[in-house]
Amino acid sequence: MKITTIGYWGAYPAANEATSGYLLQSEGENILIDCGSGVLSNMQNYIELVALDAVILSHYHADHMADIYTLQYAMRILMDLKKRKKPLHIYGHAEDKEFEKLHYYDYTIANAIDERKPLKLGELTIFFNRNVHSDTCFSMRIEKKNKKIVYTADTGWDDTLIKFADKADLLICESSLYNENVGTITGHLSAGEAGKIAAMADVKQLVLSHLPHFGEHDDLLKQARENFDGKIEMAKTGMNWRL
Ligand SMILES: [Zn+2]
Ligand SMILES: [Zn+2]
Q: How far, in Å, is the centroid of ligand 2 from the Cα of 79?
């Protein structure tokens, strides 16, 4: 499987970039994980919209799903033009009324995710773990054969993440905060905490994402490194990993 960073900013995108969005590709299956602001435009640098099979949303904050509504229009136009034959499946939790809006005529179909039941898409199995965040939000673990990718989406510190990310090949961890911000903003992780999770879960590689619009990003890297000896990278548009 291959995962490509479409967007990595927290809150709002920098010029020509996007907030959270990752394109997961496996055996001809194209799955978008989160669909933040700027993702619809940027994603088209990597695949044509007719080739998108599914979207999985971690939660309904705008920086993770702002482009879902324009993506629905895109599906409508492509299907009306007969360029695309099948509707797009969108997966998200059903604990919020936003869920109903994922359904759009016969163009996009809302599918409820269930943290007790892993989701099977082709050869991929996706597990969910409930986060500590201001609204319901889930981390995801994507497994194929013996490979594991974990994407935290938005979360404050939570011990369950350690087990959930255990021995992951790739941990894409939110790092919205510098260590000095801990305690001032809740529901998000600092770079130091991201490093600590990576070390405690014994992951192979850590990627810092959901990056802030303040401070020096190099400091995030240094703070994560204080706690984790393995490979650490900062998310960048187009950066991808094959597992
Ligand atoms: Zn959020
Ligand atoms: Zn966010």
A: 31
Report the sign of the C-alpha dihedral through residues 190, 195, 201, 203, in that order.
positive
- Per-residue burial over 107-144, b if 16 or more Cβ lie within 10 Å, else e, is bbbbbebeeeeebebeebebbbbebbbeebbbbbbbbb
Query: Taking Cα atoms as reference points, which of 104, 115, 105, 109 lies closest to residue 140?
Result: 115
Contact (Cβ atoms closer than 8 angstroms) between residue 185 and residue 177: yes
* Tokens (6 digits) for 47: 């695949």
Q: Find the 78 Cα to ligand 1 centroid distance in Å.
A: 30
How many Å lie between the centroid of ligand 1 and the Cα of residue 123?
29
- Only one residue has tokens 């319901």, namely 136
Q: Residue 7: nearest ligand to its CA?
A: 2
All domains in the chain, ordered by first residue: 2-242 (3.60.15.10)
* pLDDT (average), residues 116-122: 97
Going from the Cα of 81 to the center of ligand 1, the distance in angstroms, rounded, reads: 35
Q: Are 64 and 58 in contact (CB under 8 A)?
A: yes
190 Cβ partners below 8 Å, 6+ apart? 175, 176, 177, 178, 179, 181, 182, 223
Give per-residue pLDDT as tens, 188-228: 999 999 999 999 999 999 999 999 999 999 999 999 999 99
